[in-house]
Design brief:
single chain, 106 residues, alpha+beta, 4 helices
Amino acid sequence: MNEMPSSASMSHEISLAISAENLRPLIESVLQCTGSLTGWPVGRVALQEAEAADCIGVPSHVLRDARLRLKLKHVRSGRSVLYTSAQLQAALQTMTVNAKSSEPSL
């Protein structure tokens, strides 16, 4: 009597190679659908001010100025100023360009 190997004992490996440049648009599309920022580091809940500014593509003084004018919500952890993805997304929705200069303002 011949015994057929069980499916648990059969192992098939498949490898898929996709270049980063081809994968990036897909990842960015998924992140937009989930409401995450494209530059947001995976596994991070909040970013410090300079990191957050880099993530949304503005100079860090823009976030600092908006925070000090009490228009930008933030979190404090000790002496650190932190921003969540949701806070940055809300800030981006309200960000406008001043008609007299090309500097973004909140």
